[in-house]
Design the sequence.
């Protein structure tokens, strides 16, 4: 039976969504790309949202205002640097409520391991992995108080498989898949679930930033790089979209997913089936 707070309702376009009315979602690294897309889908399903990044610009706060107006929910932007443990914890504490935590903030750097800059390694491990330790630790007491919670880690196909030159990223993403399983076991009796979404390639600023250098390296056009290099490992030959990642997050918050915990859901066009 569906619980009152997660009742199913139909929208005019015939789509079905779980209502997340009354829930508050905090999405780290959400002034762009997948994080912003996930925030929009959770808000479309009725959740109030907290957006975050390390910047504090008028345009960051405007993103929250626009999202609130579009979906008729409460939204605010809280600046916090996910490379710093105390700021991760402060983000959750200053929000004061956290029913849904989406650990999404992430960066990338590509280099052979023997040339990998130490500061890039440290930043990737901190932002892509350790931030989720700090935010989850701060959010679980709030979820326990509410008697319900969802932790959704945005891992990657690189949390399940590797590519050369991405040692820090692959390490961090495998780490977050391990953390997902551990948190799920620690919360298994508490109406709290913890899962990881593993996207393949999604055309966001993080991926777009890798295109010009690759085009130069292989003497290709940017379109050729997208099709022949980036999507080479994605059997569907299509990018996943931020809406699809957001829709998967909404599903994980639904009553249909109550018994799904400690696992990964790939949204990768078949990449990890290879
Ligand atoms: P993006 O660059 O558009 O978004 C990254 C977000 O993280 C931005 O909002 C950025 O401001 C934020 N961020 C970076 N450093 C931060 C810090 N120190 N503190 C707070 N926020 C910070 O990239 P994206 O593709 O949307 O990536 C989002 C997540 O999805 C990442 O964890 C990434 O690893 C993962 N992912 C992306 C893809 C893809 O193909 N785009 C595939 C698999 C996984």
Sequence:
């Amino acid at each position: 039976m569906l619980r009152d707070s997660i009742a199913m309702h139909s929208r005019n376009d015939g789509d079905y969504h779980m209502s997340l009315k009354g829930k508050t979602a905090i999405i780290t690294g959400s002034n762009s790309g997948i994080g912003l897309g996930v925030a929009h889908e959770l808000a479309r399903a009725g959740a109030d949202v907290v957006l975050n990044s390390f910047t504090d610009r008028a345009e960051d706060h405007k993103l929250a205002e626009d999202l609130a107006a579009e979906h008729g929910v409460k939204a605010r932007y809280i600046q916090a640097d996910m490379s710093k443990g105390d700021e991760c914890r402060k983000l959750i504490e200053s929000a004061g409520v956290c029913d849904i935590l989406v650990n999404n903030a992430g960066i990338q750097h590509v280099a052979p391991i023997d040339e990998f800059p130490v500061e890039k390694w440290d930043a990737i491990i901190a932002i892509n992995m350790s931030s989720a330790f700090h935010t989850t630790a701060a959010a679980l007491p709030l979820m326990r108080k509410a008697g319900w919670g969802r932790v959704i880690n945005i891992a990657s196909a690189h949390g399940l498989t590797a590519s050369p030159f991405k040692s820090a990223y692959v390490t961090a993403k495998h780490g977050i898949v391990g953390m997902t399983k551990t948190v799920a076991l620690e919360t298994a009796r508490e109406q709290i679930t913890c899962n990881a979404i593993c996207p393949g390639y999604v055309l966001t600023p993080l991926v777009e930033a890798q295109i010009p250098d690759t085009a130069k390296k292989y003497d290709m056009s940017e379109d050729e790089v997208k099709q022949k290099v980036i999507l080479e490992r994605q059997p569907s030959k299509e990018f996943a979209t931020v809406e699809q990642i957001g829709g998967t997050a909404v599903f994980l918050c639904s009553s249909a997913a109550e018994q799904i915990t400690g696992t990964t859901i790939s949204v990768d066009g078949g990449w990890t089936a290879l």
Residues 1-17 have pLDDT under 50 and may be disordered. Residues 118-146 form the longest helix (29 residues). The pocket of nicotinamide-adenine-dinucleotide is lined by residues 29-35, 53-54, 81-83, 104-107, 127-128, 154, 156, 199, 201-202, 204-207 (CB under 6 Å).
